[in-house]
């Protein structure tokens, strides 16, 4: 196990993290997801050693870095941290930024390798302010890789990036991390981003891990309603969640009868707010369709279960 | 658990606060005969003169400082840039030097009265009174208000003038309804500085024989040898300062005065006709009387004593001034850097307040700090002698005492520049460095220090200038026979050798002007 958290607790004025247990295997890409204030950045800072938990245990590479008696400083944890605003040292050139954490400050070969890896050959002498946001991002990940860390921690790495560039940068970053074979933990508040990049997602809710699972499982089998609704439109019949792509509409036949409450025009499609009748009980659903439905129009729906 | 960084800050805080605590502690308790006598006779005069001085100087500096800032920020006219620079120059002339110069110019046998007599006017105008002191102190201190308020006007002008004008308001209305209220913290803050300096002022009040609290503290201590009464007066001065600080704090209230900076170009209005001439007149007055006339006086009499410039004695005094000012500025910047860095990396409630507590020395009159330090070091010396560590006074009267006093008094300038510079550097850089294998200390050296070198230099200059011009602390706490430019000017002036003070004043002004020019040119202010 590359990282193991046992019963971690952290409180400021009120509890921020409660009994966090988490196990991460070598080479996995994990996302920590949650609403703002759910404690996700605090968790990442505790793993990095920037903040100290109140209790619990933390192991990196099977070595204890935090428990009741011990708290290893960040510089001795062999982790790499990629910041939201990249945190490149503005007074140092790209080359010096890359070699900042490396013992041999003249290792030109390493600089060349790293710049090749992030597709920025020839950038050695440039300064951070001369780079675009995406380039700064890639240099910051290369700087982390230079120190050969056990784990790379990334704190909302795409939040400062333009929406248009985001997909490309996301792809680039993922490619670099996969190529390096490193374990990476992303903190994000964007569920689409998390599902796109992660092997597993840990969803934090009120300081607790509500669910730790693969993207598919979290999406189709959410453990709580909060998890379900965070990852997209979720319709419930009792405790069972149905996603948009598990519902089909038909005017002639189907499993359950449904009636339109109201419809919202969204350009490419209509967002229909409907009531579904199941065993004499009404369940409010939201579904999408390309056709307009008038108010109180009746039709049928069928549900698929993955 | 308190870490090493925080422990250092706590020890420093206690050390720097000790003199003030000792003064308060000593003032409490039974009254001495002198104190009873003072209360019955001159105490009310000390307090009322100080109050009159504070209010009047506050009012005049407000008119001069805000007026000058307003005209040079919002209007365009010929030589406006010359005025922007020239209006800051009186900062280089210490108040007491200005006081000596005008007492000479208006002396019975000197320039002004010779001129009057040549015109057939026989009357004698004695300037050694509180009105002259008010005018001179205002001329010397208004640059505080001018520089701080101008910076605030500039910021709110570019951020808010265009949006407000687009809403249909007139320029006059925008200024009075938006820009002036938004600059209230800057105005009140700078006036508070002026008032605190006024309470502290020693050289001119003593020379002009104005019975304010600061000279009274020294006279009671050194003249009447009554430490209890002196500390009692010191506590009154401290209370006055705290009232000024309280007003300043109350004034800020809860309203937000934060303005997002903007690079928007704002067209300045042109001044024409009588308004232009009135503005020239208004702006020329402080430059003329606050800088040019003193400079001419100094230049004329320095020329008379040019031969002294190369005198070994003069060079030794100059070296002393440069040495003590630069050494104390260096020490203050290092200490301030460490304390500010500690509250940055360990932002506990206590650490966050440390810079405020440590700034207390700046608000206290030099006289209060001086007697506090004398008491502290006398106590330490007594202890050392009693415990056979030393046989004579070890700390009292040493150069270390003087340096310590400068640190207590001017630490605020250092920590404020360091703090505001740290605010501009993302803490993520520190975290990034540590995650890349560097300790706090190495991060400090490799990341924060190189990024802050300009700000540290700026802070160094400010402390250096303040120390160079400082009079009461230097006068009282300097080692035996140790002269600086300020103490020498003071001694000569008190011996009625006013013309001979010129070269020492020249030394102070020239040395102050170099960094002041750098600061103004770099638009750091």
What report would you give on this structure?
- The complex is a heterodimer of chains A (306) and B (525).
- Chain A has eight helices and 17 strands.
- With 306 residues, chain A is an alpha+beta fold.
- The longest helix of chain A is centred in the middle third of the chain and has 18 residues, at 163-180.
- The two termini of chain A are 31 Å apart.
- Chain B is built from 25 helices and two strands.
- By secondary structure, chain B is an all-alpha fold.
- Chain B has a two-stranded parallel sheet.
List keywords for this structure.
heterodimer, A: 306 residues, alpha+beta, 6-stranded mixed sheet, 5-stranded antiparallel sheet, 8 helices, B: 525 residues, mainly alpha, two-stranded parallel sheet, 25 helices, 1% strand
Radius of gyration of chain A: 23 Å
Unreliable parts of chain A: none
Over the alpha carbons, how many angstroms does the gyration radius of chain B reach?
24 Å
Which consecutive residue ranges of chain B, at least 5 long each, have pLDDT under 50?
A: none
Tell me roughly what share of residues is in helical segments of chain B: over 70%
Give the topology, please.
The complex is a heterodimer of chains A (306) and B (525).
Chain A: E1 3-11, E2 15-24, E3 29-33, H1 40-48, E4 55-60, E5 63-66, E6 79-82, H2 94-98, H3 108-117, H4 133-146, E7 151-155, H5 163-180, E8 183-188, H6 191-197, E9 200-205, E10 208-213, H7 215-220, H8 225-230, E11 235-237, E12 240-242, E13 247-250, E14 256-265, E15 270-278, E16 281-289, E17 298-303
Parallel strand pairs in A: 3-8, 3-9, 6-7, 7-8
Antiparallel strand pairs in A: 1-2, 1-4, 4-5, 9-10, 11-12, 13-17, 14-15, 14-17, 15-16
Helix pairs in contact in A: 3-4, 4-5
Chain B: H1 4-27, H2 33-40, H3 43-74, E1 75-76, H4 80-86, H5 95-105, H6 111-118, H7 130-166, H8 171-182, H9 184-200, H10 203-207, H11 213-223, H12 227-252, E2 269-270, H13 273-304, H14 306-309, H15 312-345, H16 349-358, H17 360-363, H18 366-386, H19 399-423, H20 427-435, H21 440-451, H22 453-469, H23 472-477, H24 485-494, H25 502-521
Helix pairs in contact in B: 1-12, 1-15, 1-16, 1-18, 3-7, 3-9, 3-13, 5-7, 5-13, 7-8, 7-9, 9-12, 11-12, 11-18, 12-18, 13-25, 15-16, 15-19, 15-22, 18-19, 19-22, 20-21, 22-25, 24-25
């Amino acid at each position: 196990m590359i990282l193991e958290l046992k019963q971690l607790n952290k409180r400021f004025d009120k509890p921020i993290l409660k009994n966090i247990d988490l196990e991460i295997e070598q080479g996995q890409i994990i996302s920590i997801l949650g609403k703002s204030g759910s404690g996700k950045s605090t968790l990442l800072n505790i793993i990095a050693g920037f903040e100290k938990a109140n209790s619990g245990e933390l192991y990196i590479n099977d070595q204890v870095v935090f428990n009741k008696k011990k708290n290893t400083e960040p510089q001795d944890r062999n982790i790499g941290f990629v910041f939201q605003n990249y945190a490149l040292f503005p007074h140092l050139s790209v080359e010096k930024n890359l070699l900042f954490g490396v013992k041999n400050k003249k290792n030109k070969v390493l600089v060349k390798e790293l710049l090749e890896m992030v597709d920025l050959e020839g950038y050695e002498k440039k300064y951070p302010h001369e780079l675009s946001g995406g380039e700064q991002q890639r240099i910051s990940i290369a700087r982390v890789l230079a120190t050969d860390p056990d784990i790379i921690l990334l704190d909302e790495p795409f939040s400062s990036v333009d929406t248009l560039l985001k997909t490309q940068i996301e792809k680039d970053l993922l490619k670099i991390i996969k190529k390096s074979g490193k374990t990476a933990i992303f903190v994000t508040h964007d569920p689409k981003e998390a599902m796109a990049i992660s092997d597993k997602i840990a969803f934090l809710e009120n300081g607790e891990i509500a669910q730790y699972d693969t993207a598919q499982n979290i999406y189709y089998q959410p453990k709580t309603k909060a998890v379900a609704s965070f990852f997209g439109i979720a319709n419930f019949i009792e405790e069972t969640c149905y996603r948009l792509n598990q519902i089909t509409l038909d005017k002639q036949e189907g499993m359950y009868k449904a009636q339109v409450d109201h419809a919202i025009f969204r350009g490419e499609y209509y967002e229909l707010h409907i009531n579904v009748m199941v065993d004499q009980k009404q369940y409010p659903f939201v579904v999408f369709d390309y056709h307009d439905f008038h108010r109180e129009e009746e039709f049928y729906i069928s549900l698929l279960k993955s | 658990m308190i870490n090493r960084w925080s422990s250092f800050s706590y020890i420093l805080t206690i050390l720097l606060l000790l003199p003030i605590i000792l003064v308060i502690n000593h003032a409490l308790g039974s009254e001495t005969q002198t104190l009873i006598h003072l209360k019955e006779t001159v105490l009310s005069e000390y307090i009322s003169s100080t109050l009159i001085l504070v209010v009047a100087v506050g009012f005049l500096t407000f008119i001069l400082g805000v007026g000058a800032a307003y005209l040079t920020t919002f209007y365009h006219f010929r030589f406006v840039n010359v005025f922007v620079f020239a209006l800051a120059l009186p900062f280089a002339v210490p108040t007491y030097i200005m006081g000596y110069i005008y007492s000479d110019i208006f002396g019975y046998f000197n320039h002004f009265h010779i001129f009057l007599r040549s015109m057939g006017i026989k009357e004698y105008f004695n300037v050694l009174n509180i009105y002259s002191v008010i005018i001179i102190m205002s001329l010397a201190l208004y640059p505080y208000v001018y520089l701080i308020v101008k910076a605030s006007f500039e910021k709110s002008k570019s951020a808010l003038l265009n949006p407000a004008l687009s809403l249909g308001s007139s320029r006059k209305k925008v200024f009075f309804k938006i820009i002036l209220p938004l600059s209230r913290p800057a105005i009140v803050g700078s006036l508070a500085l002026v008032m605190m300096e006024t309470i502290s002022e020693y050289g001119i009040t003593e020379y002009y024989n104005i019975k304010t609290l600061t000279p009274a503290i020294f006279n009671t201590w050194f003249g009447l040898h009554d430490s209890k009464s002196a500390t009692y007066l010191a506590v009154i001065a401290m209370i006055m300062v705290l009232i000024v600080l309280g007003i300043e704090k109350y004034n800020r209230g809860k309203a937000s005065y934060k303005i997002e900076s903007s690079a928007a170009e704002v067209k300045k209005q042109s001044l024409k006709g009588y308004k232009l001439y009135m503005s020239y007149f208004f702006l020329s007055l402080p430059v003329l009387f606050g800088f040019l006339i003193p400079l001419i006086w100094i230049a004329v009499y320095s020329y008379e004593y040019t031969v002294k410039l190369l005198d070994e004695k003069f060079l030794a005094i100059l070296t002393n001034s440069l040495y003590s000012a630069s050494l104390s500025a260096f020490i203050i910047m290092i200490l301030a850097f460490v304390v500010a860095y500690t509250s940055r990396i360990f932002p506990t409630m206590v650490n966050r307040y440390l810079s405020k507590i440590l700034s207390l020395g700046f608000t206290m009159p030099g006289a209060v700090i001086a007697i506090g330090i004398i008491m502290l070091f006398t106590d330490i010396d007594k202890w050392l002698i009693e415990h056979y560590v030393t046989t004579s006074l070890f700390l009292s009267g040493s150069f270390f005492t003087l340096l310590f006093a400068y640190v207590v008094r001017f630490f605020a300038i250092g920590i404020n520049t360091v703090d505001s510079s740290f605010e501009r550097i993302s803490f993520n850089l520190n975290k990034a460095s540590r995650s890349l294998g560097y300790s706090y200390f190495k991060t400090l050296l490799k990341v924060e220090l190189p990024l802050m070198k300009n700000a540290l230099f700026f802070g160094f200059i400010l402390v250096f200038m303040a120390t160079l011009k400082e009079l009461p602390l230097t006068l009282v706490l300097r080692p035996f026979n140790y002269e600086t430019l300020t103490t020498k000017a003071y001694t000569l002036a008190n011996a009625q050798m006013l013309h001979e003070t010129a070269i020492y004043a020249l030394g102070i002004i020239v040395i102050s002007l170099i960094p002041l020019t750098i600061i103004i040119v770099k638009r750091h202010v």
